[in-house]
Design a protein that fits this description.
globular; 2 domains; alpha/beta; homodimer; Rossmann fold; 6-stranded parallel β-sheet; 6-phosphogluconate dehydrogenase C-terminal fold
Chain lengths: 318, 318
């Protein structure tokens, strides 16, 4: 059990990220009181049923008042409205942070409204699953994952250190970065992959020459991998693309150029060009496994679970 | 233990698929003798060290002679050469099949050379991992997966039934299909996903504004999912695109059209269009899970393994 870093933590939004933070912060004892606000009365009631917090607030002001740490865990698109409504009710010296997948826009949306007497430190834990809502959270979500913080140069270093300590106790590695660089890095490591996944699943479901049932039956050929990202929260991802437009379009442009070259190689039967690309991409996975960001087992360890589940059926059949 | 269906099975090629077939066929007792041929002396020696077969042949003719079932487990591009070399040495009534990811081209490459007295039944088990070589095989690979057979109408139905029984005993569900339809179905469920995965990993590794080390560190944001398919065997996949060119280009054309529309929606800030697509793709994953082709656990069950591995490190740190 770590020392209490923040007597009162306010969570604005209680989806996958908010609920995971609540569970992890409680488990490690880094906060004493968890105050939860979310707009939906149903979601707030569900959070209460799950026992995620100590107090539950439909009123956002009541939630953040007296909080030492305020974490905004909503889709990126509502952060300006949140900053406006909480600005006049924040405690002296409070840290205000968030978990949004975009950082430049968060700064633009929130910084103009937040008072001088709070420490505004935008944040982004690179962690998640395809599930959403307060039931999706689990305390281990942040273990071994990176959390990027993008404080302005003027922000109090002691406040940054305390927020860094918070994420480290939850299991994360913390990195400080410029907000705009964050948005470029995430455009390639997260935003473009989601866009591509959504797109291919859309293309497959629109086909007329191949039935949807066939796409589903034979999805183990590779397609099913993409359906995980394409099952992510639609509101969250709409907001990411509306709020990181420039970097997303830049990465998409590069992807499309490369894909056009690959298309040409297929059309002209250029086996050497195909082989060259298909060979050099192999080592990147190895690097990701070595960096502790992917498991070693083949097929994401998935076939082990599948085989266990199916082995019984198979034995029954024989 | 099932009855022996084929006294002698010849495997041409002993990579992930060949070795998995050897292990599964042995486990279930559906063959008595497993004869293995591969071109590389090193790979053949490795197969022997692993005890995958009963006899090992550098001479392909010695391997297939007297075989009741011949399974070609090589990249698609060498199947014509294999058909030519084995044609005059096949046993009367033998079944000749393969495991290639393309079927139209296999028919064109092999059918003209195979004699009337054998049953030629092209096949494709929709199963695999990103690993390759004889060490990558495991007996459970086919459990719960589909295996597609594409025999011509003229092929003996009893032979088809026997090959179907073979795959069912290995744990697969078998479907009969026209070879050209197979190539369209697999173009969307397998070939396009691999192409897209190879492409995005290539785009990411060529960036200059974002360092490769950053791509690796922050890959848990989504990118790492693609690196699995992009770590697949380069020779196999080169041959797939050279031999299923028309269907792959067709699906790629549709994908690119859809992606261009999505790009326009991002540029013009059309949140409704983004939300609509991101919502309707969600249900497909549910259908794949319900069809038994994907595991239920979030994140491919991956975070469970990760958390277990990392929990200890985390406890040590605190």
């Amino acid at each position: 059990m770590a020392d209490c870093l923040f007597p009162r933590m306010a969570l604005i939004g209680i989806g996958l990220l908010g609920s995971s933070i609540a569970l992890a912060a409680r488990q490690h004892g880094v906060v004493e009181h968890i105050a939860i606000h979310t707009r939906s009365a149903d979601t707030l009631a569900r959070a209460q049923d799950l026992g995620l917090g100590d107090s539950y607030h439909q009123d956002i002001i009541a939630c953040v008042r007296e909080a030492d740490l305020v974490i905004v865990c909503t889709p990126v698109g509502v952060c300006e409205a949140i900053a406006k409504s909480i600005a006049d009710h924040l405690k002296d010296g409070a840290i205000v942070t968030d978990v949004g997948s975009v950082k430049g826009s968060i700064v633009k949306q929130m910084a103009p409204y937040l008072p001088e007497h709070v420490h505004f430190i935008p944040g982004h834990p690179i962690a998640g699953t395809e599930n959403s809502g307060p039931d999706a959270g689990f305390a281990e979500l942040f273990i071994g994952r990176w959390c990027i913080l993008t404080p302005a140069d003027s922000v109090d270093r002691d406040a940054v250190s305390r927020l860094q300590a918070f994420w480290e106790i939850l299991g994360s590695n913390v990195e400080l970065m410029d907000a705009n660089h964050h948005d470029q890095v995430l455009a390639i490591t997260s935003h473009l992959p989601h866009l591509i996944a959504y797109n291919i699943v859309g293309t497959a479901s629109d086909l007329e020459m191949v039935r949807n049932s066939e796409v589903i039956k034979y999805s183990a050929g590779g397609f099913r991998d993409f359906t995980r990202l394409a099952a992510s929260d639609p509101t969250m991802w709409r907001d990411v693309f509306l709020h990181n437009k420039e970097a997303a379009l830049e990465m998409l442009g590069r992807f499309t150029e490369d894909l056009t070259a690959l298309q040409r190689a297929i059309r002209w039967g250029d086996g050497d060009a195909l082989f060259e690309l298909f060979s050099r991409t192999r080592s990147i996975r190895r690097s990701i496994i070595d960096a502790g960001q992917e498991i070693e087992a083949p097929d994401f360890g998935r076939h082990i679970n599948e085989a266990e589940g199916e082995a019984q059926k198979s034995q029954t059949r024989l």
